[in-house]
Amino acid sequence: MPIELQQLNANRSALFYEIRCLLLYSTNFSLLRVTCCVQLHENTTGFPDKAFPRELHSIRSTTTGSSVLLTDFQPSFDQLRSTRPLVVVTGVTCVLDLIAFGLVDEGEYFLCPAPYFSSFLNDLYAKSRARTYDVDIRRDDGPGYQITLENLERAYNEAVLDGLKIKAILVANPNNPTGDILCEEEIRTVLDFAKRHAIHAVFDEIYGLSVHQDCYDFHSVCSIENPVPEMTHFMWGLSKDLGLSGFRCGVLHSKNSQLLKFLRRVSFFSAIPLFIQDWLTSLLKDTDWFEKEYFPKVHKQMEIQYGIATKRLEKLGVRIHKSGGGDFI
Ligand SMILES: Cc1ncc(COP(=O)(O)O)c(C=O)c1O
């Protein structure tokens, strides 16, 4: 084998080895989160011994728990203090599915700034047959991404020229897979753009409490003055920030009365089992533990592992796109 090829293969296997280690780090990291949460619960409460009536009291308590957690740990979620318009179902995947079913007709489109979480394609399409239309948000002036009115308008106009019907824009903040955090101006741009075209603005903030320690300028859409509140929808869940994806808990906040009416009818099909809700409710109520132990530990760990991972990759000559949230590199 020629020397260069040998060298290339050696480099490749070193890279794969590093990537395997990084995956392991991130798996351990998720395990750390789950273990912390499960230990907490085992130490404090047991499963309820009474049978639950079928009414929704438990659903309401998880709702309260999530909103307390969100508002206490991320000031920019403050608007969620009034819990009434929160709907809780089995994961953000389910929220996305319900949103698509409730807002969009078959063959209509969500604009999605790219790159975006690949499962959006399936979540929006599988049942509702809604589709995504990519918005190219690569910066003109260097590497990285930025949402601007120009790139949104360009994508919208192209889609309309092709005869497509755009019904909504879907943004993940912090973003999966880039870990980018939108600045206030970008969020305002999305909201103004949505207003101008009378489309829905959907914000997936499932990584909202997983922001690296030195990036405290995360802004939730809930904290931004909103030109059309009833056309804006916010979602969050326990899968990422608490590492509890197996518990299937996703939250939707919306002020759209028609959507809420629709969700009241259908959300029971995706209700979280009541004993899980009860477990989560007791977990979420322990804000002291979250504040003093869980979040400081997790955020510190995220920073350490991000540092290790980026340094190793840089040593291998891999260019790094600086990430601010989630466990993305
Ligand atoms: C941006 C984003 N939204 C939604 C989900 C799905 O979350 P859940 O486990 O609550 O269905 C994920 C999971 O990876 C995600 O990255």
Structure described in brief:
By secondary structure, this protein is α/β, with parallel strands linked by helices. The chain is 47% helix and 12% strand.
What is the radius of gyration computed over CA atoms, rounded to a whole number of angstroms? 21 Å
Query: What class, by secondary structure content?
Result: alpha/beta
CA(first)-CA(last) distance? 33 Å
Strand line-up across the major sheet: 1-7-6-5-4-2-3
Regarding quaternary structure, what we see is: single chain
Percentage of residues in DSSP E strands: 5-15%
Bound molecules: pyridoxal-5'-phosphate
Number of strands: 7
Average pLDDT confidence is: 80
Helices and strands, in N-to-C order? HHEHEHEHEHEEEHHH
Describe the protein:
With 329 residues, the chain is of the alpha/beta class. Helix content is 47%, strand content 12%. Strands 1-7-6-5-4-2-3 form a 7-stranded mixed sheet, with helices on both faces. The model is unreliable at 36-59 (pLDDT under 50). Bound molecules: pyridoxal-5'-phosphate (PLP). Pyridoxal-5'-phosphate is lined by residues 91-93, 117, 172, 176, 204, 206, 237, 239, 245, 250.
